[in-house]
Amino acid sequence: MVVRVYIASSSGSVAVKKHQQAIVGFLEANRINFEEVDITMLEDQRFWMYRNIPEEKRPEKGNPLAPQIFNGDDYCGDYEDFFQSKETNTVSSFLRLPSVKDSES
């Protein structure tokens, strides 16, 4: 499974841009493999993202905003969920990453 971060490169929202940068920066700094998917350039991926976000995570009006995080086809969450997992030191389980076994024993 691959962690995918759905971003909007042409977002006019400063908050969206900061949230996207925070997620991507954290993943890069922690050497977590991920794929960035730009929903402003890939319409089919934008619609896939919209369809695969659980009903309870969708806004009352309009479409969900980037960034949204998936592991394969499994929805992980949005920026708020990511931030919470960072604060509670549970990012690996939030991203549904396999447990790291100590192979150096």
Automatic annotation (TrEMBL):
CDD domains, A to Z: GRX_SH3BGR
Coiled coil region boundaries: none
GO cellular component, one term: nucleus
Pfam families: SH3BGR (PF04908)
Superkingdom field: Eukaryota
Compartment(s) where it occurs, according to its Swiss-Prot or TrEMBL record: Nucleus
Keyword entries, A-Z: Nucleus, SH3-binding
One term of GO molecular function: SH3 domain binding
Main location: nucleus
Family: Belongs to the SH3BGR family.
PANTHER family: SH3 DOMAIN-BINDING GLUTAMIC ACID-RICH-LIKE PROTEIN, SH3 DOMAIN-BINDING GLUTAMIC ACID-RICH-LIKE PROTEIN 2
Name of protein: SH3 domain-binding glutamic acid-rich-like protein
UniProt source species: Phoxinus phoxinus
